[in-house]
Each structure stands twice: as C-alpha cells, then as structure tokens.
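Reopening this one. Same input as before:
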Amino acid sequence: MDNLDIKIKQVFPEESVYKIPKRYNIFNGKNLPSFIKDWLIKKFTDDFGELDSESLLNFLERHIPQKNSAIKNRLRTHREEVTILTRFIVENDIQHDKLKFAIPDLGIKSNEGRIPDYIAKKNSDLKDGEIWGVITLAYIPPDGKEKGIIELVNYKPFKPYSVDIDYFKSNRKEFSTEEWIDVLIRSMEYNPKGFESLQQKLQFLSRLLVFVEPRLNLIELAPKGTGKSYIFSNLSKYGWLISGGVVTRAKLFHDIQKKTNGIITMYDFVAMDEIQTIKFSDPDELKGALKSYLESGSCTVANVRISSLAGMILLGNIPLNDNKLPLNKKYFTSLPEFFKESALLDRFHGFIEGWQLPRIKEDLKANGYSLNVEYFSEILHSLRDDSSYNTIVSELLDIPKSSDTRDTTAIIKMTTAYLKLLFPNITSINEINKEEFKHFCLNMSINKRAIIREQIHLIDDEFGKEMPDIKMR
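Same output, byte for byte:
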C-alpha cells in the first residue's frame, strides 16, 4: 500500500474498500452497478483484506436475480418466499387501482408483479420508477378468475450506510487538496496515476458536478472510450441514464394518459447518452417543456405543473483531428437538430471538453483503497441539499451589475459544485484559501460557461461571446 492507501484506510475505516481489479472478475456475467459490487466486496472481506469468494458466490446465486436463475422456480414450484437484492420498477396502474412492479433481470413483467396496499402504505418511497432494495417475493397461485401472480411481501430500501455528512466533511481536513482529488478519482473507480496532469484530473472530476448541485445542466462531447456512460450509469442509484431510443414528453416530464410524472421528477440527474442517436417524439412540445424546465426547474403539461431539482447532462461523441482536437470549431454541430437552437443551448450552464480526458485503459482501473461507491454516492446525494456552499460562493464573488443573469447563475452553480466536491469541510468565507478557490473552483467554472457562450455565438451572432468580469472580493 502507498501513503494514500494507508491514509484512506485510517481516516475512513468503515467506509473504504480495497479494490483489486481481478477481484471484480467474480461479477463477470452479472448485470450489477458499481455501488452494489463495492458493497458486496466489503461485506465478504475480512479485517485482513481477504475476500471470502465462496460465500460471495453463494450470496450471488441465492439473492441476486439473473434470468437463468432458479428463483422463479423456487417461487412457483416450491412455494418458497425468496428474498433478493435487486432493482425493480414500480408502476402505478391508476385504471385498475393497483401498484405493480417488474424485475427485468428476472424476466418478471409488470403484469406479473403486485405490491399489496399494506406494503405501499408502510413505504412512501415505493413510487413510480426504478428502485434498488431488498425485497421478499411470494407466489400467489390462480384462484377462480384471478391469475397467478408474484407478490412483494416485504421491502427494505437498499441504503446500507447511514451517512454522517459532518463526519465526512471533517475528515476532508486530513488530506491535502491534491490528495483529496486523488481520493475522489479513486472513488469514481479510476486510478489517479493513470492521468497526465492535475488539470486533466479536474476535468474528469467535472463529471461529478451534476451529482452534487441541484438543477445543474451540462454538455460533454468526447471521443469514444473515455468512460462517459460508465460514470453516469454505475456510480449512483440517484441518476438515470437514457442511452439511445426515443424520448417523449410523457417519459421525461408527465404522462397525460397514465397521470404519472416522468423521470425528471424521480432522480438527481438525467443523462442523455449517445445523444446523436436519440430520437425526440413531438419535438416542438418537448422542446417547449424542456426550455421552461432548464430555465426554472418547472414546466406545465396539460395543466399539471411539474417541478424538480434534477439536473441534466448531454453526452455525445465528437470527431477529432490528428492533434486530438475537434475537427470543427463549432462543437454543437455534433448535436442532433433538436438541440441546435441557441435559446435552448443557452440554458445549459457549462461544457466539458471530453477530448482532454484519457481513453480508459488498464492503468486507469482503480487499484488500492477508495471510498466504497455506495457510501460515496450517498455523500454526493446528501451534499445536494446543503445550501451553505452557495452562500459562501455568493459572498466571495464580486459580480458586475451589467452581467448576464444566465452567465452569473451558471458560474455560481458550477463554482458551488466544485466547492462541495473539493473543499466540503469549508463552513465560512474565513476558511477559504482564495488562491486554491480561484484556481480549482472559479476559473474552472468561468471556462466552462465561456465555451457555451462562444459556441452559441458561432451559431447565432445575436448572442455575444463576452463573459462578465467576475472577480473575488
């Protein structure tokens, strides 16, 4: 172990996990996100760092559903009650007054799964959308005209960590800024030694901004193989990744027929991956709702007001030249037509230059101690609700009265997000190292907003490219 390994283990003894890439081969063929894998590795590793592989495999066989597993047979044939750790999708069936569920990894469809009222009343978080939890299933055989059905008879949300956010903030003081940056990168499941520079690390960490700051909207264009999809689909159960397919107003905001709200109301952020391949149904209606939402955090669909704190990030590929720079100076030509409107693009706060990031190679895989991904994701989720950082940023910045409001909003939101990530221990303006704050937080944010401003100017000269002259007090 190196010095950082030792420090992470000492400072976060219960919240850290020792990651050796070959250990994770045990999950080959299992469709599990990182926050589940880390929890399982931690669960079956003793105090000396030895993994009990046999017990872990037995647990996977009995309690992690796979389509070819014996779980459905145990339910129907042997009439067992089966307890599993899984993701399941809850659906309110208003027409039939039922709460249904599906388990895609077991091949259980929503018309085969039922959540009884007594379970729903005890668990207010059993609402439309995808949920991770420990659930107990029982098979109810056919009775007269009633078809056989699988019933959810017990439920416990998957939240193995009771997060003490003050403990986390206080422990940040034990690390230098560069050490802390490496801790964050390890916790994203990457090896900081595989990066070329501190600046490249900071660009990589920019992907976490939407995890910690409400209603932050970003665009990242990058070549293939830089890990965009992995970050947004594996690190947190509080985010939703749309990868290809058709996006509708009903899916995103509100379904008028089902009278149910869309995914924007269920998660901390929505990531649209492979943005070039996504199709948009009824684009004018959807664009109107999206503009309103990106601007204010709310929109109206059929007289129903939809509000949320979810952010949005667009993820797409961009062609590069031999110098690994974009072929076209107009970056937004890589976006689908739906997003090539200046007024819509102006509502995105910042741009991540993904071509500055390394391709994912073996030397970028995490190797050593890091924060357990499930614990880390709960911390990121908790930081969203802390408004004290925004107050500190607002006190620190001197903003000209002539500044464009969208520019200043964007810069304050991104700077606040960087402060949460890099200096979570800061509680007042007096504790700020102003040089570090300027370099790691403010300048990064100004640069990201400036790219949005310049790129909009290139497609619509009614938008100026000048940025407000924001300084520190």
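So the earlier flakiness isn't reproducible anymore. For the record, The chain has 17 helices and 20 strands.
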